[in-house]
């Protein structure tokens, strides 16, 4: 099946769409290789040689990854990425500025197909959903694909415009643009799905926009558990008695405090060296994935961040979750009235119970998995899609529950 068959949007689309292909200039690829080859890796220390204690990635891992990066075939990855239809379009944000938004899509010609917006997080990008799209192209034709699959790059990520310098941009601004994207594509009713930051975007869409009629999450922020939850339960959310104090619990989240409280510094630092960026993002790939696809995937993600110079413009949501701009707890706990589904993957770093999700949403469907981690779309694309498929079949057409249960 030719992917171009999936590239025709609805006749109801109002937006002007520009077909897009990833094409990194050769000089940028050569420059990256030169920087990787010339980069200095720190000397051995107690911390960076430990394999039992988790002080972050090891020196040996970084040296091995560096060697593999020097042999990395970016053009092969580019060819795979371009096997899925992509577009850009112009949208006007809440701040009045115009944004060019990039998205990957599989358009169905089936008359009753249901639109689903998939939102990624950090340190991911639209490529998290590439395996799922490849699976769907093999499984369906445009005439029987039951869904219109829309996968945008968040503003400031890869090929979507970054927030304007004078805009204090956050998740509500992303949701505004994404709702505008779906409406502009001709979808008066759609489903929002997401993990990581994408779960916050999907939740915001479900709370604030009538066109979003259902929400599916495969992650729920654990930092704001429902009111009445005791502190010990909150600390032990990840499971296991070794998470019995706040310092131990926060160890995997040191990066978030840096990105939320000192985004300028870390943004400047990691933009000076591809090896530094590899260490920072590679740590999360290794730590958060239950079955991470491998080093080639990490190198693809990091290379794309480097080529587009978007790490500094990708971390702004952390000001709202870890920094001084964090909203009141009531905002995160605001009721999601739309029918909500929740997939709980066994290897997720934040093992939020479905009962907590039920306290802040109209939870009508849930499923637990033994495996799979934070990057469910990459690690378990078939299982995640099956969950979304089952949820939508159950929830599409359900009415919102306007009041939180007593």
UniProtKB/TrEMBL annotation:
The keyword Nuclease does not apply. The active site is at 196 (nucleophile), 318 (proton donor), 374 (proton donor). Keywords: Hydrolase. GO terms for molecular function: epoxide hydrolase activity. The keyword Ubl conjugation does not apply. SUPFAM superfamilies: alpha/beta-Hydrolases. GO terms for biological process: epoxide metabolic process. Residues 18-129 form the Epoxide hydrolase N-terminal domain. It holds the Pfam family EHN. Belongs to the peptidase S33 family. This is Epoxide hydrolase N-terminal domain-containing protein.
């Amino acid at each position: 099946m030719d992917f171009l068959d999936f590239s025709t949007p609805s006749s109801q689309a109002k937006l002007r769409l520009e077909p897009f292909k990833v094409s990194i200039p050769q000089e940028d690829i050569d420059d990256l290789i030169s920087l990787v080859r010339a980069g200095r890796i720190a000397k051995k220390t107690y911390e960076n040689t430990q394999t039992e204690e988790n002080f972050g990635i090891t020196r040996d891992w970084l040296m091995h990854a560096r060697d593999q990066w020097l042999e990395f075939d970016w053009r092969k990855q580019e060819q795979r990425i371009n096997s899925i239809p992509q577009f850009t379009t112009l949208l006007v944000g809440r701040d009045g500025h115009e944004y060019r938004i990039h998205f990957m899509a599989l358009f169905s010609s089936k008359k009753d197909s249901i639109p689903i917006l998939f939102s990624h997080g950090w340190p991911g990008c639209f490529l998290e959903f590439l395996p799922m799209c490849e699976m769907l192209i093999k499984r369906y034709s445009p005439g029987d694909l039951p869904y219109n699959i829309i996968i945008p790059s968040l503003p400031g990520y890869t090929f979507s415009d970054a927030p304007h310098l004078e805009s204090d941009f956050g998740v509500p601004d992303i949701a505004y643009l994404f709702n505008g994207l779906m409406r502009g594509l001709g979808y008066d009713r759609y489903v929002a799905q997401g993990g990581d930051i994408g779960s916050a975007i999907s939740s915001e869409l479900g709370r604030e926009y009538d066109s979003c009629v259902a929400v599916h999450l495969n992650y729920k922020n654990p930092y704001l558990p429902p009111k009445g939850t005791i502190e010990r339960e909150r600390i032990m959310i990840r499971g296991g008695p070794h998470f019995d104090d706040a310092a131990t619990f926060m160890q995997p989240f040191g990066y978030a405090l840096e990105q939320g409280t000192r985004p300028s510094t870390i943004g400047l630092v990691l933009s000076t060296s591809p090896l530094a960026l590899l260490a920072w993002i590679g740590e999360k790939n290794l730590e958060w994935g239950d079955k991470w696809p491998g080093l080639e995937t990490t190198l693809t993600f990091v290379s794309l961040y480097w080529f587009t110079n978007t790490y500094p413009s990708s971390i702004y949501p952390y000001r709202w979750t870890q920094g001084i701009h964090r909203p009141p707890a009531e905002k995160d706990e605001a009721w999601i009235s739309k029918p909500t589904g929740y997939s709980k993957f066994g290897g997720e770093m934040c093992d939020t119970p479905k009962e907590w999700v039920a306290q802040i949403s109209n939870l009508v469907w849930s499923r637990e998995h033994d495996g799979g981690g934070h990057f469910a779309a990459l690690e378990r694309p078939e299982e995640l899609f099956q969950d979304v498929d089952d949820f939508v079949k159950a929830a599409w057409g359900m009415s919102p529950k306007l009041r939180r249960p007593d």
